[in-house]
Write a structure and sequence with these properties.
Blueprint: H1 2-38, H2 41-45, E1 66-69, E2 73-76, H3 93-102, H4 117-120, H5 125-137, E3 149-150, E4 159-161
Helix pairs in contact: 1-5, 3-5
């Protein structure tokens, strides 16, 4: 009797664990969506948003508006969707977390200074991974953004200039 009860409890626990794993993953994606919304990633990474007409069908697919930083060049908010050719599709979850927290891309280059990674450096592991899971869960949006452009190059798209006060 005890053996059957113990077996039933173990099977029930295993079944609950199997059911909880997808729910926990869904919770992480929902948390990531919430965080991406609250920290306004879409402002700089959604086509049309900086022009007042966000294209929500291509949400987080990269911006056609660049930020000019004198002496450095022009940088566009890149495609954050999992498109393999123009977005984060070839990045791992850990690589996304590293970029969010340290500003370092998988290839070793630093993200443009306009990306406020320093504000995200102290995100908890759970929150940083939730953001990465959410980004990986999005439908891929093929959208190659212009640039980046060095200070000596002429940008090919609309530019917002970041300038020090005179």
């Amino acid at each position: 009797m005890i053996r059957h009860t113990l077996s039933a409890l173990l099977l029930s626990a295993a079944a609950l664990g199997a059911l909880a794993a997808p729910a926990m993953a869904d919770d992480a994606v929902a948390r990531g969506k919430y965080l991406v919304t609250v920290i306004s990633c879409g402002d700089c990474h959604t086509p049309g948003h900086l022009l007042g007409k966000p294209d929500m069908a291509r949400m987080l697919g990269g911006s056609e508006v660049g930020f000019e930083i004198p002496g450095l060049g022009v940088f566009h908010g890149p495609n954050l969707t999992p498109d393999k050719d123009t977005g984060l599709g070839n990045w791992t979850e850990d690589q996304i977390v590293t970029a969010i927290r340290t500003g370092k891309r998988p290839d070793g280059r630093m993200l443009a200074p306009v990306m406020p990674w320093m504000s995200f450096a102290s995100l908890s592991d759970d929150d940083a991974h939730a953001i990465a899971r959410y980004l990986k869960s999005l439908p891929p949006v093929p959208n190659k953004v212009p640039g980046p452009f060095s200070a000596a190059e002429k940008p090919t798209a609309f530019v917002l200039r970041v300038a020090a006060p005179q």
